[in-house]
Design a protein that fits this description.
Low-confidence stretches: none
Helix content: 25-40%
Largest sheet: 5 strands, mixed
Oligomer: single chain
Number of helices: 3
CATH topology: YaeB-like fold
Strand content: 15-25%
Distance between the termini: 28 Å
């Protein structure tokens, strides 16, 4: 089954900010590798939103799950190059069998509750 993907405006902003910081702090190659990692993680979630590495985060809000980018590292690697220590997670919901909604992409040290979208 193929799922539709929706990326919330807040998540689009998160991704843009993450990639800009990667380019500024580590160079254009790092930005490209991190972009590939985010894309691979989203692809993995589209294939199986309840993959074993994902976590039920219903303590935050019903239906929310999180998935750390580190779980897609190997699948995103180009040749011998992979992001060594990804520090972000994807917050998402799969409200129907054919839809995945990425709500946020946050640094794993953030207080997630403070960055959730409104009800």
């Amino acid at each position: 089954m193929s799922r539709r993907l929706e990326v919330a405006p807040a998540a689009r902003g998160d991704i843009a900010q993450i990639l800009q910081a990667s380019a500024t702090d580590f160079g254009e190659g790092a930005r490209s590798r991190y972009a590939s990692l985010i894309a691979a993680a989203i692809k993995d979630l589209l294939e199986d939103p309840e993959r074993p590495e994902s976590l039920d985060r219903s303590e935050l809000r019903d239906g929310i799950r999180s998935y750390h980018l580190r779980h897609s590292r190997r699948r995103a690697a180009t040749g011998e190059t992979a992001v060594k220590s990804p520090r972000h997670l994807i917050l998402y919901i799969a409200p129907t069998a054919d839809l995945l909604v990425v709500l946020r992409v946050l640094h794993d040290a953030m207080e997630i509750e403070r960055h959730l979208p409104g009800e």
